[in-house]
Amino acid sequence: MALILFEDGPVISLDTSLMGTLAGIGATSVAVLRDEQTVAVVLEGWAMETERIEEAAVVLADGRPARMLHPVARMTVVPSEGG
Fold this sequence. Notes:
This protein has 83 residues and is α+β, with helices and mostly antiparallel strands.
């Protein structure tokens, strides 16, 4: 999983060329989120090549400054017994 943050700008265009690039690094899921100041892209994929995420970030950024966040921890949440 990777989270790529961009300063405010147009929503990312998920065209076939970009999707091919993302598939090429092993991404199987892409989510685009935004608020008034930031656009974020979440990339997920069980076979994603983490060393190539920066390549995808450059393509996604299209010249804009970008920040990448990498997972530090991840766990599955399950309900406790009795509640």
